[in-house]
Amino acid sequence: MAKLGKRTRAAREAVAGKENLSVDEAVALVKANATSKFDETIEIALNLGVDTRHADQMVRGVVGLPNGTGKTMRVAVFARGPKADEAKEAGADIIGAEDLMETIQGGTIEFDRCIATPDMMPIVGRLGKVLGPRNLMPNPKVGTVTMDVKAAVEAAKGGEVQFKAEKGGVVHAGVGKASFDEAKLVENVRAFISAVAKAKPTGAKGTYMKKIALSSTMGPGVTLDVAAASGE
C-alpha cells in the first residue's frame, strides 16, 4: 500500500470523524484543506433516491450560481446569419454550422457548453453520440436550444451550471474555487442544493436526497446534514 504524503495525511486527519456538518462548517473545513499549489475546485456530489433508467425519475436542470464558478467557460454556438453575429457579440468562443459539425465529428471538442438555435438542430442532432455522453448536447429544457443566443451565451459565461443525474442517481458539479470567500461558497452551495431539490421528478419515491458530500479537487470529502442543507 502506497504511503500517504504529509499533506494528504493531514487533510484526512482534519476531517476524520466529522460528518453531517452544516453547509457553513463543511465549506470552512473543505476550504481549509485545499492546500494544493493550484486553485482547487470546490465540488459537490448528491446521491439521490432515483432510478435514472426511468424517464419520470430523471433529474436535470440548470442553476445560475450567485457568485459564479471561477471557471472560464468556453462556449460553442451553432447559428447562422444575424444569430451568429449575436453570438459573437455576446462573447461566444466558437461559432459555426456544418463546419463546426465536421470539426466535432473529427474529434475536436474545444468547448464546455454548446448552444444552438432551433433551426440548427437537424445538424446538431447528428452529433448526439459524440456530445451526449459528454453532457454537451444542446437541450431546450436547460436553455441551450434557443433563439435568445445572447442570453444563453451570457448565462454560460456568467457562472450558470447544468446538472444531470448519472447512473446510480448521482449529481455532481463544481460550485466555486478554494480562493472564494467562505460566504460566497456557502451561497453557491445552497443555490445548487436548492436547484436540485426543485428538480425533484414526479416519479421519485421515498427519500429524494440521501447524501450530500463536499470536497476540493485534491482534498477528502465531508458529508452534510441533508435535512438542514436541503430543507427537507
Short structural description:
With 232 residues, the chain is α/β, with parallel strands linked by helices.
Task: Describe what this molecule looks like in 3D.
There is one protein chain. The protein has 232 residues and is α/β, with parallel strands linked by helices. It has helices at 6-15, 23-32, 81-90, 98-105, 121-124, 128-131, 149-157, 182-198, 226-230; strands at 41-48, 60-64, 75-78, 94-96, 113-116, 160-164, 170-177, 209-216, 222-223. It folds into 2 domains: 17-69 and 160-230, Ribosomal protein L1/L10, rRNA-binding domain (Ribulose 1,5 Bisphosphate Carboxylase/Oxygenase, 2-Layer Sandwich), CATH 3.30.190.20; 75-158, Rossmann fold (3-Layer(aba) Sandwich), CATH 3.40.50. Helices cover 33% and strands 20% of the residues. The strands form 3 sheets. Strands 7-1-8-9 form a 4-stranded antiparallel sheet, with helices on one face. A 3-stranded parallel sheet has the order 4-3-5, sandwiched between helices. The chain has a two-stranded antiparallel ribbon with strand order 2-6. The model has no long low-confidence stretch (mean pLDDT 91). Part of the 50S ribosomal subunit. Keywords: Repressor, Ribonucleoprotein, Ribosomal protein, RNA-binding, rRNA-binding, Translation regulation, tRNA-binding. This is Large ribosomal subunit protein uL1. Belongs to the universal ribosomal protein uL1 family.
